[in-house]
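ok so for the tutorial part 2 we go from a plain amino acid sequence to predicted structure tokens. step 1 is just haveing the sequence, like this:
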Amino acid sequence: MKRYLIVILVATTLIVGAVGIINYRVDPFLLYHHRDGGDQVLARIDQFYNMRLYKPYHVTRRKPEAIIVGTSRSGSIRAQHPSWENLRTYNFAMPGMTIYELSRLVEHAQAVQPLSQLIVGLDYHALVRAVPKYRPGFEPARLVEKPADFRSPAFIGQWFRDLQTFLFSFDMSRESLRAVAPTASFPRVYYADGAWKGVGRELVGRGGYIFVARSAVESIQVTPFRLEDNLPYIRDLLHFCYRNNINTKLFFTPTHVFFVDLWFRIASEQLWRDAHREILAINHEIAREYNRPPFEIWGFGDETEVVAEPIYRSKDIDKAWFMDGAHYGTRLAEHIMEALLGPGGDFGRVLTPDTVDDYLDRVDSIREQFFRANPKQVAGLHERIGNVPEPVD
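step 2 — the prediction. this is what the tokens look like for a chain of 393 residues:
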């Protein structure tokens, strides 16, 4: 019996060791060979639902001095610009990121390496979504608030749990197998700088509009939209950035005016307007506390050519600024980055408490013009989405 147990123990050790060696060598999340790996390595598997697991460790290893953070609507922005050429950079965006998650990611990045530049994408849906506080896969203990927390029992315990997942789990072995023997194309391409872009033809164009709109309609049926739940996190984030002298720029992520109208229908125009006004007011209030110029907050929602473009079919999606009306492609991502960091131009505008109402009125006017020009197409989309309320007079 004793010999039998020894054999079992040795065999188990060899199997677990072999699994660990394979997962380490294949490294599907690019955790251990990040200096040697690149875009092609990370893009071997579909990483869309893995980001909350591996991105905090990427930041810990890469030590970026400039980051982009936000939901998937900020994920297509490459952390590249001539003004960032001499900085280590990373796109720390994640799908469906909540405002609480966003604030924690900025704290984590600052604890790893003091940030000199920060770009924050403000997603309206995330701002008014009261729950959840954070999404599945997000572990607060995986992130630190200050450098000393890397030695805390909570972080160390989470690190060992993640090590078991990364090296010795059979789930990771399946990912390693997919990485070395890819058998299918993926709807997205992933980059080692944290960004990604859609390349598939599914759920883009009109089909993408329907899918994203259905998700929005269903989400408000689960929990009402409320702004006040997330404003404290925004306030804490801005305090943190002013206090740590992080050069911060924020922007409201643009969407097609079809979705602006949808927000009006499933919540209210007043809530949409209040979200913009409140954030601008908080930013100016906190800037006064620190005796600093307020952070720039940009809006791109009144760029008519972009936000009121035709709703293309999937076969014509290469012509579009938006992939699905909410997520924009590389062309618009590059325009946003240049507006935020470039010498200035005629794309987008910096919003202030004094100018925001004019901006919101302009967006609403573009929305009305689009709906008057495309009544049949809009009605057809609403019919396929289902449960879209009638407009409130």
